[in-house]
Design a protein that fits this description.
This protein has four helices and 16 strands. It is α+β, with helices and mostly antiparallel strands.
Amino acid sequence: MPLRLLSVTFDAHDPDRLARFWADLLGREVVEDAGGALLPGDDTQVGLRFAPGGADTVRPNRMHLHLHLTSASAADQQQTVATVLRLGGGHLDVGQRPEEGHVVLADPEGYELCVIEAGNNFLAGCGLLGEVACDGTREVGLFWSEALGWPLVWDQDEETAIQSPHGGTKVAWGGPPVAAKVGRNRQRFDLAPVDGDQQAEIDRLLSLGATRLETGADGAVVLADPDGNEFSVRQS
């Protein structure tokens, strides 16, 4: 039975502030839970969680997980950029070329985000939070497709992307080369079994190529995907 993706979780020095930033940007509510400040998702939009964590941001960020926001028009893109800046974000230079249509920014804790230009066919119909873009191999894209039961919607030139059967936010991996892992990731997926059987899902993930790492005090089991990225499976 596939797992439910509860959230993409970000460690933060000030999780409440970061949650407010993203809530205002995405038009969502903040819900406090045991894992931090949560912006719940739904069948088509991925949830975001911001958890206490003091590690410094390292670039290139292992997993290089960043969020892509979509635009309905050029004016809408400009408005989103202005909102990011007003809320405490800033511009970020990652070597993008002037002719590229997307705008690269950083949230108040330095996490990269991109505001994608209008007319991007790949993200058409995906909603405001159009994509979770990750560094990663084709193998890890296939792993997550099986783990979540989300079909592949892109599989070319070692690049992969998956999407919920309901549509909405895509999760994509850019293929090799993948940056060497430096310490524990500050970003991870938090999952829960659809039918409540945590151990059965952990066994299934191990059979797909995951590695078991540890069990947290809250009962969540931490594993690593085939690229070594940590993720957790909660009890419910």
